[in-house]
Amino acid sequence: MNLILLGPPGAGKGTQAKRLEERYGLKQLSTGDMLRAAIAEGTPLGRQVKEILDRGDLVTDEIMLDMIAERIAQPDCDRGFILDGFPRTVRQAEGLDDMLGRHGKALAVVIEMKVDEAALFARVANRAAQSAEKRSDDTEETLRKRLGIYREQTAPIIPYYRDKGLLKAVDGMADMDSVTRQIEAILGLQSADASAS
Ligand code: AMP
Asked: CA–CA separation, 89 vs 48, rounded Å?
């Protein structure tokens, strides 16, 4: 089963994707993590994208599509994957469709995590304060910029997937466990917590 977790920065995509990975063996593919790893390793790609991430801008669609194409072909994605932070533009969404078609794969669902923007500032400030690994883009100024880019460039993929009948929404403002249960219900998965009780 392949799915997309969609939502603005700070919506909790990474947290939920990691849980689904641990519980169900679906591979989390976080393009933000991949780019940060490339920067940390100092690869040519990392050097190319560092300033873009620091500014809160988007990396080009070509780079992102190549990165995902290479990744979903790996055997650890055979059981399914969770796209976290990709696609972020309609062009990436269209490119993903072509790519999945070529690999004989398909998307099961696109889950939009709905959040209140004001609350995102508190969350991202909290993430910056608690995180051992400092993210250079977790500042109020960059968040404002990234939210603007989300509204302008990423939000248009919501109607794109709605028209395909793939879109479902969860209340991303609920507590973490409740969000996980909402996602599991959409995916038709039984939660580990529920089965233990
Ligand atoms: P994230 O960890 O998902 O918030 O991503 C951090 C940063 O990586 C973003 O602000 C962008 O600069 C870059 N990035 C991650 N995914 C993408 C993508 N699909 N398209 C373009 N840029 C991306």
From this structure: 20
